[in-house]
Design goal:
Helix content: over 70%
Largest sheet: none
Number of domains: 2
Structural class: mainly alpha
Order of helices and strands: HHHHH
Number of strands: 0
Radius of gyration: 24 Å
Length: about 150
């Protein structure tokens, strides 16, 4: 067991004990008797969930490392290629931001990133999310916050 797995188990145990103690808190005589223990209970449940996620993530990571060792390929890994791609697309986005405006540059940037992460199979979703996000943020900044963003060239 590595430290991540141990941390997950300790977090789960601490969350269980904390939740039990929160549930056994003394109930007030006036007002809602459950109100004082709601936040501690939610906190304890969140600790248990985080501990489970950490433990499961560490177990999966360990299994993935075994698979990667078995199929050791030469060249750049997928993660390294994705990092290089993200840096290149971010630089292009930074150069295009002032030239073609916020909405177009952000839509192109998000499309490029979503295609890299989700693949070409989900092209409709990728384009819809990129357009929706870009236009939504543009409207929030221009109309509600009165913060100007670079306009489109036309």
């Amino acid at each position: 067991m590595n430290t991540g797995s141990i941390t997950g188990i300790v977090t789960i145990a601490f969350g269980i004990v904390y939740s039990i103690l929160a549930y056994n808190m003394e109930r007030p005589s006036i007002g809602n008797p459950l109100e004082p223990m709601m936040f501690p209970l939610i906190l304890g449940i969140c600790m248990i969930i985080c501990g489970i996620l950490l433990f499961v993530g560490e177990v999966r990571k360990k299994e993935q490392k075994k698979v990667e060792k078995d199929s050791a390929k030469k060249g750049l890994s997928y993660d390294t290629k994705l990092i290089i791609y993200t840096c290149a697309v971010s630089l292009i986005y930074a150069f295009l931001f002032e030239e073609i405006g916020y909405v177009l540059s952000t839509t192109l940037f998000m499309c490029a990133m979503l295609f890299a992460l989700n693949g070409k199979e989900q092209w409709k979703t990728n384009i819809a999310v990129a357009l929706g996000f870009s236009i939504g943020v543009y409207i929030v900044f221009m109309k509600f916050l009165s913060i100007p963003l670079p306009m489109m060239p036309f």
